[in-house]
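Long-time lurker. I teach an intro course on protein structure, and each term I like to show students one example going from raw sequence to a predicted 3D structure in token notation. This year I'd like something fresh instead of my usual example. Would anyone be willing to generate the tokens for the chain below so I can use it in lecture? Attribution to the forum is fine with me.
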Amino acid sequence: MTKYRTLLLATIGFNFSFLIWFSFAPFTGPMAEEFGLSLAEIGVLASAAIWLAPFGRILTGWLSDRFGAPVIFAIVLAYVGVFSIWSAFAESYSVFFFTRLIVATAGITFVIGIQHVSEWFEAEELGTAEGIYAGIGNAGAAGGALILPRVFTTGWSGPIFSTNWRAAFFYTGIVSILLAGVYYAFGEAAKNEEKRVATKSKATIKEWLFTATRYGTVVLAFAYVMTFGLELSMNGWLATYYREGFNTSNLVLASTFAATFSIAAGLLRPFGGYISDVLARNERNILPVFKGRYREQWTFVSLCFVVVAMFGMTVAGLSGEVLIAVGVGFLVGMGCAFAEGAIFAQVPAMFPDSSGAVAGVVGGVGTVGGIVYPLVYAAPFLPNLHIGYSVVALSMVPILLLTAWVFQPTVASRATDDGFVSSDESVSIADD
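-- Reply from a regular --
Happy to contribute to a lecture. Here you go:
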């Protein structure tokens, strides 16, 4: 039962990490009022929540391979808790911004959990297991949107704070520190010593440079920009969008609308991984142009769905009907879920002994979308808040074209060996 204990532990840890990562989103209104923030500055705050994630994920993915996931996961949860508590006491915006920037690195736990789960499950179960882990984990953002503003209400008057968002940040910080201790005490790095040694032996700078530049790693990283990066941006932005774009002044209602996206993006993700597993096991072609590349076919179909749904967000927004926009937002979340599940069914299947390093690159680069997209949504030069979604959708088209090229059977069959930097160049860089 240890592999299921590992899955449970990783899922709980990541779910809470996601909750604390986006715990600011339901409170942007009162925070903006207290610190005097404009709408554009709120967009910067949403973007800043992702700034440290790319490097952090790349580093912790490699560290998880080298030192084991339980140690790295516990360290991250512990310092995130400390900074969340600090942010609750911040009196100046500069201190608040800095502490929340560090709290936002909770998102790097994703690749730690991916590596941990992959060390325990066999190849034919990876897509489903990773989908469950990431899907339920990602739903932590929905939990934050649904639970935090209801527990820490506008009229909050607690024993320490009389401000709801300060209380939320303080108590979630306490829970994070406690969870760090649980993860360290009960986590085991791998299913056996042989697997642990094989993974650790691959955790070198030379091996990292090689795997990071393979076609498979690079294309999945860009695909993750337009899916998980998009998910991050929507988690941090939608509550503001529904409030400002449709004059929905009710904070709880706007957060509830936003949570429908997070629920779809999180809870449906296991299906993305499961479908990838089923197609691979049954050797079933659903997109004959990529014949024989079963996981790649499902990934490509899911990515196309995301682009179409994003154009739909603009159409729905321009209709002026908030419930239509919420419905289309749910579809965007569903597309993200399916594509993300498909992508992380491919990662450990393609790189079984370097899953942490590759997950770090894919997960790290993927977060870039979460940095850039909120700035597009809130761009002052756009005529309204609805057009930004179509601008983002257009930016995804080149990624689709790159994906189509790499997923060709002749290229895909060599995608873990061939790369944008040759093997000799990678070795040379590492030796220097």
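Some talking points for your students: The chain has one domain: 2-418. The domain at 2-418 is CATH 1.20.1250.20 (Growth Hormone; Chain: A;).
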